[in-house]
Amino acid sequence: MNRFRLPDHLLVEEGIFSRIKDVMADREPKIDLKKALLVTDENLSKIYADMLSTIRSNFKNCETYLVQGGSFEQAVALAKHVVMEDISVVVGFGGGTVLDMAKYASFVSKALYICLPTTLSNDSLVSPVSVLGTDGLKRKTFRCTIPDAILVDVSVIMSAPEIQLLAGIGDTISKYTALKDWKIDSAVTGKAIDDFAYMISKMAFNAICYNEEKSIKSKSFIKVLAQALVMGGLAMEIAGNSRPSSGSEHLFCHSLEENFPEIRIPHGIAVAMGTYAATIFHNGNMEKIRRILHQYNLPVKPSAWKITEDIFVKAWQMAPASRAERRTVLDTADLSTQNLSRIYGMIEKEFA
Ligand SMILES: [Zn+2]
User: Fold this and answer.
1) CA 331 to ligand 1 center in whole angstroms
2) What is the count of structural domains for the chain?
3) Region for 190 from its dihedrals, namely left if φ exceeds 0, alpha if ψ lies in -120 to 50, beta otherwise
């Protein structure tokens, strides 16, 4: 039995949404005759009204579901609707919550899942988990599977705010320290590293690290970024956990989210900021990380996101507790206020 699944299609093309039926024909002949459900939200349904009717026109029978909130209960109710109505294709159009809802509902209902991202801001679009709200509590991560197809329309991605692309780059850069932390975990716990997942994650990092396309709003760059994010998701699917894409730099981001909810910063930017400090803890190649952060002009200056020295220091000091079972460099790093203040000063000065 296969331990993991891979998507049948990953295509990055302009106008791909009008050809969903043709693209899927090899895997699902006559997909257009199957009952489909298009999952999006109200805001997107206004912005992309024409695009959504193009998507719907691939299917003879396609209803639209607008996500509100995005809780676990709603995802399960949506899955029930899919089963009861004999819907066999779920199409997710959006980012974050919309895609997590569509992914989880299709997983539970065993429907085919086609993912149409409107943003490339992080690798969750292809990860084997969904993050959903649970009654008044913190958001929780639920295991599911990756999409059957990921179709990216370059023109949609290009119309999104640039910060989303920068966040996607940041989430990919963070694999540098995530992989180092995975090695530490393996050395401490004796749990083997999945070499193939490790290699794929490294390739995703290298694609962004050694990319020669200077303009991030170009078709060729968007292709590179989409592939890097998908590789990050596949690495997690193959490893069966998030270690290839998430290390101490992600713990910093989780700690910020959980302890300082007033701070609003895109996930990918927070983990890139975390990668700077985590590379110091690892005694890693600072020159390399500095070069990439500057090359893409990533906005990682903490104060630009209202992260004060005090918040920065405390977020790092509380980071290990955000996922206590994880072994990372933070178990042995110097997390003294003095050292963390020094790093805060460095990053503030460098990205003035
Ligand atoms: Zn991430």
Assistant:
1) 21
2) 2
3) left
